[in-house]
Amino acid sequence: MPTPIKLSVIGAGSATFSLGLVKDICLTPGLNGSLISFMDIDADRLDAITKLAIRYANELGADLRFEQTTDRATSLQDADFVINTASASSHYYQREAREVADKHGYYYGGRFRTGNYSNLKLMLDVARDMEEICPDAWLIQSGNPVFEGCTLMTRETSIKVCGLCHGHYGVYGIARVLGLEDHDKITWQAPGLNHNIWLTHFYYKGEDAYPLLEKWIEEEGEHYWQTHIAERTHDIQMSRGTIHQYRMFGLMPIGDTPRRGGWWYHTDIETKKRWFGEPWGGPDTHLGRPIHVEGLEKRLAQIKELIQNPNASITEAFGSQKTREQQVPIIDGLVNDNEGQFQVNIPNQGALAGVPDDVVVEVPAVVNKKGIQPLRVHPLPQKIMLEQILPEWLEMERDLLAFATGDRSMLLYNVLDAGQTSSYDQAVSVLEDVLSMPGNEEKAAHYKYDERAKDLILGQEKVAG
C-alpha cells in the first residue's frame, strides 16, 4: 500500500532539481497519491516548473497532485517533508562579488569568508516557520551552505534536519578512471564535514582498491594530467591537485573536497590550471564558473521550449530512469520502511570521533522507519583532523558567532587570515567594498564594528586633542 505524503519544495524554481525530484517520486510506487507543493518567489519560473511537472507525471502515469505558491507558509501547511533548495543570492550576484574582490588583488574572490548571512537567515527562517506550521516534518536541506546551515538550524530549532550533497559521488569518478566498471562491487566510506570528506575505505570486489590507485598514479598519472581535457567544469576528482592533496594529507579527498584544499591551489588562473587541469582550471575560476552557469541557463531555456510545445514529450527530454539524488529514497525509507544506507549531514552525536556532538558531520547512515541513524565511523587520521577537519570546524564556529552577534570584526579576521591577503589595508578595503555592494544592505546593517574600536580598525587616525 502506498503512503501519500505532502512534500513542500522551497526554491522550486530550480528547474533541473525539481524535475528530477518529480521523476524520482513518479518512479517510487510507495509514494503514490502524494501532494507536491512547489514554492518559489519567482512566480514565472514557479508556474513553468509546475506545468512541466504535471505533464511529466501524466506521461509516466503517476498518481501525484501538485500545487504552486509564492507564500512559504501556505506551502508548509500540513507538510510531512520539506526540501529547501533555495538560495538567497543569484549566480550573477556571486560573480559581481568576485569581481569586486578581484579589484583588490584577490583572484576569483580570494576564497575568504565574509559571512553567508542571507542564506543562513533564509535557512533559519524556514526552520522557524516549520516549528510553527509543521513541527513534526523532516527538513531535507539541499542548498548550500549545508555544513554551517544545518549546524545552525539543529542548534537553534527543534526541527529534524538532514543535509544532502552530491560530493560523495566522486568515489565513482575515481572508479571510472581506474577502470572499475562494476560500481555495484565498490564498497567505500568517506566521512568528514560537508565539502571536506576523506576516503577511509575503498574496496572493489572485496579487495582493497587503494593499491590500484597507487599503481595508476605511478604509471599513468603524469600522462593523464598532461593530456586530459575536462568535459565538465567539476571534473577534478583525479586531477594533479587532488592527488597532491592525497599525498599531503594521507587519504583521497572526495568530490568537492579538493576544491577547498589550501590557498596555494587558488592564487591565479595559471596555478589553478596547474593543479586542476585544462581548459578551465576547475569550476572555481573566471573561466569555469560561466560555463557552469551557461549550462544551467541552457537547461532553463530547454524547459521553456518544452512548455511552449504541448506536443513535446517530457520523458524523451528528461528520461524515465531514477536520478542518483538521495531525497526521495530517504523519504521512502522513513515513510515505507524501505531501508537503505545513505551519505547524510546530521548532528554528530558520537559518529565521528574528535568532533563535538552538536556539529553536523557528513557520515553514512541507515534510514528506515526508525529514522536516520548515523553509523559510527572509523576515526580520521590525526593529521587530517588537525590540518583539515578541526580548522574548518573553528571557521564555521566563527561564522555562526559572527552571524549571531553581528560582529563585523570577525568577518575582517577571516579576510586577514586568507592566503591572498598581503596587507591589513587590503583586507579592510575589500571587506568594506563587498559589504557596500547593491543587495548587501541588510547584511551590512547586520554586521557592525564596536563604535569604540571602529576608527582604529578602519585605520582612521584621530587628531590628538
Tell me what the structure shows:
42% of the residues are buried. The protein has 3 domains: 6-90 and 113-164 and 295-334, LDH C-terminal domain-like (Alpha-Beta Complex), CATH 3.90.1820; 167-286, no CATH class; 382-457, no CATH class. A hairpin with a 2-residue loop joins strand 10 and strand 11 (207-208). Helix 1 packs parallel to helix 2 (43-60) and helix 16 packs across helix 17. It is α/β, with parallel strands linked by helices. 46% of the residues lie in helices and 14% in strands. The mean pLDDT is 94. The chain has 19 helices and 15 strands. It has a 6-stranded parallel β-sheet with strand order 3-2-1-4-5-6, with helices on both faces.
Map the helices and strands.
Layout: E1 6-10, H1 15-26, E2 35-39, H2 43-60, E3 65-69, H3 72-76, E4 81-84, H4 91-103, H5 117-133, E5 138-141, H6 146-156, E6 160-163, H7 170-178, E7 186-189, E8 192-193, E9 196-199, E10 201-204, E11 207-208, H8 210-227, H9 240-249, E12 252-253, H10 257-260, H11 269-276, H12 288-308, H13 314-318, H14 327-336, E13 340-347, E14 360-368, E15 371-374, H15 382-405, H16 408-416, H17 424-435, H18 441-446, H19 454-457
Parallel strand pairs: 1-2, 1-4, 2-3, 4-5, 5-6
Antiparallel strand pairs: 7-10, 8-9, 9-12, 10-11, 13-14, 14-15
Helix pairs in contact: 1-2, 2-12, 4-17, 5-6, 15-16, 16-17
